[in-house]
C-alpha cells in the first residue's frame, strides 16, 4: 500500500489550564466546552497526546501509525535519517487569559540526561494581544545564578527580567535556557521541539479551586537557565506570495507567507512541511483535488507531496526542517 498524498489535518488536543480562556473558540471556532481552555495541540506525538487524522483517506489513523507505516513519505528522507520514526516538532495554539508561570526549558543535553527527552527550543507568533499585554523573555541585562536566586527568594524577580509589550505579528524565538512567561491577554501560535519538559520557577502565588498551588521546579531550573541577556525578537519581511524567512535554526525553519492569489510550491522530499493559518482562508490544490482551510488550521504536507498550489487570501506560517 502507498501513502495517499494530500494535506493532512488533525483533531485538536485541547488542554485545560488554570490560566486558560475561551479565545480558542471565539477566534478559531475550536470545539471547547470550558472557560479555561489554555492550549490546542494541533500536531503532536508527545506520549499520551498523539494526534489523530481528521480528514481524507487516513482519517482516524494516528500520526505515529502513519509515520511507522510510511516514514520517509511523511517525514522526508533527511528527517527519517536524523530522527528515525520520531516526529521532531510540536505545534500549538495558546490562549493566555491570565499570566502563565515564569518558566524555563532545558537544552537537549540536560533533557536527555534527566528525562530522556528532547530539549524545548520554541518560537512564538503573536496572533492577538489585548492592549498593553506583555511577555517576559530573558534577563534585562546579564545576570548570575546568585542574583537570580536572591531576587526569586525576595519575590523581586520581575526587577531583573525583560518585559516586552506585544502586538499581532510579533515573533519571538526562545532558545533553551531562556526564562520566559506569556502574559495575560495574548493568543499565540507556538512551534517547538517535541518535548513537554517545563521547569516552573514562579507561579504568582496562585492556587487552584481546591486551594492547591502548582508544583515548582526551582532546583532543576538553576542549571537550565541561561543568565546572559539575549535578543529574542525577530524582524522579518512581509512580501506577498513569497516565503519570507523568520527563524532559521537547527530545530526548525519558519517562513512568513502572506498569500494573495496563487503560489506554486515545489519541494524536495527531504522534509515534511507544515502550514499554520494565522489569518484568512486558502486552499491547497494537489493532483486535481482542492482542499479548503481557514484561520486556526494546521496542515501537514507529507514530504512525498512535492508539487502543489496554494491559493487564497491568508497569512501562513510555513515550517519545515
From TrEMBL:
The active site is at residue 200. Zn(2+) binds at residues 105, 122, 180. It comes from Flavobacterium macacae. InterPro entries: Carb_Metab_Reg_Kinase/Isom, Man6P_isomerase_Firm_short, MPI_cupin_dom, PMI_typeI_cat, RmlC-like_jellyroll, RmlC_Cupin_sf. Binds 1 zinc ion per subunit. SUPFAM superfamilies: RmlC-like cupins. This is Phosphohexomutase. Residues 247-320 form the Mannose-6-phosphate isomerase cupin domain. Its cofactor is Zn(2+). It comes from the Bacteria. It holds the Pfam family MPI_cupin_dom. Residues 12-117 form the Phosphomannose isomerase type I catalytic domain. GO terms for molecular function: mannose-6-phosphate isomerase activity; zinc ion binding. One of its GO terms (biological process) is carbohydrate metabolic process. Keywords: Isomerase, Metal-binding, Zinc.
Amino acid at each position: 500500500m502507498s501513502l495517499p498524498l494530500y494535506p493532512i489535518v488533525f483533531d485538536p488536543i485541547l488542554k485545560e489550564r488554570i490560566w486558560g480562556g475561551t479565545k480558542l473558540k471565539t477566534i478559531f471556532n475550536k470545539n471547547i466546552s470550558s472557560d479555561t481552555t489554555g492550549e490546542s495541540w494541533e500536531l503532536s506525538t508527545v506520549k499520551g497526546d498523539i494526534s489523530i487524522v481528521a480528514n481524507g483517506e487516513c482519517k482516524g489513523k494516528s500520526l505515529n501509525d502513519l509515520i511507522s507505516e510510511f516514514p520517509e513519505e511523511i517525514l522526508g528522507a533527511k528527517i527519517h535519517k536524523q530522527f528515525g520514526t520520531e516526529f521532531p516538532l510540536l505545534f500549538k495554539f495558546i490562549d493566555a487569559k491570565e499570566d502563565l508561570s515564569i518558566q524555563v526549558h532545558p537544552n537537549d543535553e540536560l533533557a536527555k540526561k534527566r528525562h530522556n527527552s528532547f530539549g524545548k527550543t520554541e518560537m512564538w507568533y503573536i496572533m492577538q494581544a489585548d492592549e498593553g499585554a506583555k511577555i517576559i523573555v530573558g534577563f534585562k541585562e546579564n545576570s548570575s545564578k546568585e542574583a537570580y536566586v536572591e531576587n526569586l527568594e525576595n519575590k523581586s524577580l520581575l526587577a531583573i527580567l525583560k518585559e516586552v509589550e506585544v502586538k499581532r505579528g510579533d515573533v519571538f524565538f526562545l532558545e533553551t535556557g531562556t526564562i520566559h512567561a506569556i502574559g495575560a491577554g495574548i493568543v499565540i501560535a507556538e512551534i517547538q521541539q517535541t518535548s513537554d519538559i517545563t521547569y516552573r520557577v514562579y507561579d504568582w502565588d496562585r492556587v487552584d479551586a481546591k486551594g492547591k498551588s502548582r508544583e515548582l521546579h526551582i532546583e532543576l531550573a538553576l542549571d537550565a537557565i541561561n543568565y546572559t541577556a539575549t535578543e529574542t525578537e525577530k524582524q522579518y519581511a512581509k512580501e506577498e506570495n513569497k516565503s519570507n524567512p523568520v527563524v532559521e535554526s537547527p530545530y526548525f525553519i519558519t517562513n512568513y507567507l502572506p498569500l494573495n492569489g496563487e503560489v506554486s510550491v515545489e519541494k524536495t522530499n527531504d522534509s515534511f512541511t507544515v502550514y499554520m493559518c494565522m489569518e484568512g482562508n486558502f486552499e491547497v490544490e494537489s493532483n486535481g483535488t482542492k482542499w479548503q482551510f481557514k484561520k486556526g488550521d494546521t496542515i501537514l504536507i507529507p514530504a512525498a507531496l512535492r508539487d502543489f498550489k496554494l491559493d487564497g487570501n491568508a497569512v501562513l506560517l510555513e515550517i519545515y526542517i
